[in-house]
Amino acid sequence: MKGTSRSFFALAISMTLLSGCSTHKASDSTDLSGRTEPVSMNSVVFTDYDLNRRWSRGFGYLEDGERYRLSLVQHGQRPTSAGTTEVYVVLRNHTDFDYQVEARTQFFDRDGVPADVRPIWQRLTVPANSLETYRELSTSTQPLQYRVEIRELGR
Known about the structure:
Distance between the termini: 55 Å
Protein name: DUF1425 domain-containing protein
Keywords: Signal
Shape: elongated
Signal peptide: 1-26
Number of domains: 1
Helix content: 10-25%
Oligomer: single chain
InterPro entries: DUF1425 (IPR010824), YcfL-like_sf (IPR038483)
Organism: Marinobacter nauticus (Marinobacter hydrocarbonoclasticus)
């Protein structure tokens, strides 16, 4: 009887753990929908799969709702006093630790052809539970479009 109750207890515990795992939405790294879309101008792209991934009621979360590590608050471009273009991206860190990322901006002319200088990755630290702004200046005075890529530092 004692052995049966232990087996039943172990089974109940394992079923409880497994049922908690079944509510976790499994990620599909083979989903190519975002990776095969045409390049859109005046946009921001997270090139790391896990950086802007959404978790919905996963293990450790009791309430419903999505969870992010890093999210995009806003982005845009504006002219500078020198006549060049400044691109800005405001990022929000949803974690309890500082998040280090790299960002780069590719400028394009009106026809969608890469213009200006070759993009260089710049390091950026987004403080825990806070906002940080990434900025990049063009070297041309011509009207330009942009595409910003963001990745986790070290990837």
